[in-house]
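Page 47, continued from p. 46.
Same chain as before, 387 aa.
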Amino acid sequence: MNSRKIQKGFWKRLAALAVMAVVCIGLYTASLVDRHPLMENEGREFVKARVIEVIEDNQQSGGVYIGDQTVELELLSGAHQGEHIQAQSSSAYLYGTHCTPNLKVVAIVSESDGELVGSVYGYYREPALLGMIALFLLTIILIGGRRGLYSVLGLAFTFLCIFWFFLPMVYRGYSPVIAAIAVVIATTLVTMYLVGGFTVKATASVLGTVMGVLVAGLLAYLFGKLARVSGYNVSDIESLIYIQEQLDIQVGQLMFAGILIAALGAVMDVSMSIASTLQELHDKNPQLDTRQLFRSGMTVGHDMMGTMSNTLILAFTGGSINTIVLFYAYGYSRMQLMNMYDIAIEIMQGISASMGVVLTVPFVSLIGAWMIVRAARKSSAGNGKTL
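Result:
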């Protein structure tokens, strides 16, 4: 009986993977947008290079770097691969890097009157970043086993939804909020059914997650109306307005779409945790009714509310820590701080996402308890527990 149940679950997950593959193909087709870069890059390319020699250094007495270095580079990629050029490298914080022989860098190369002109863009850090990502994914698979593999697949699908669906739809002029809702629903369905299988608890988690994220978005909209904060009050609005003038992107909705996507992870975590707990409790004690299961879910949710809300608040705070340090150092008054757009946006994002997490608890507890008890009654009449 158990082997038959395992086999049945395997084929259902295989079907989910097949559906995900078909959806990925559809997403890729939707991502084929004819983009026209707003910055002219003709005749210029970013290439991997190696520092051969530092021709002129910019190190002063005392170890201070002033001005630019002049270096000789060997181009390791691009149309001029294998050629050697002289380039300038700044020791600034954001661009350039202090070059030493054999250092791998990224160079900007352009051709002018048949002569190559180059400058060092920055340190070549792609291998380090890819290594970090690979270590993260490998850790999930080694510790989580088959479930970990399904989690990685769900994570990959999430990124595909964002880069192959959300961004192209926004670029084409569609509503960012509607596109974000579609991403939330698609990601939730694939992730929950991959990790939890086609079960009652997975279905309850899907419903609870979607409801929680939509509530977070609605609250953000209402808070924005009350505080008179919109998507046009963000710090980089000048650049976004320029993009809006060139394209049909609905800039005003981007902030609210971002809140929906940002809240998804935490809401999904709470939703699946409570649904799994309810299913486990009912499996251990099938005599529990809907009311008792609901109370158990609320009890578990009470402990999760504080930690998950803390996670979201700290995540938004950590993302703005540089700004917060500046405000603290300059000694801004409470009246000034509480009426700044930046502070209002951070509070609105953190509170609305946390409210989505908190309200997910009763949503999932009620839906999960009702569905689990209902499935158990059907099971006693000869039906299986899985959907």
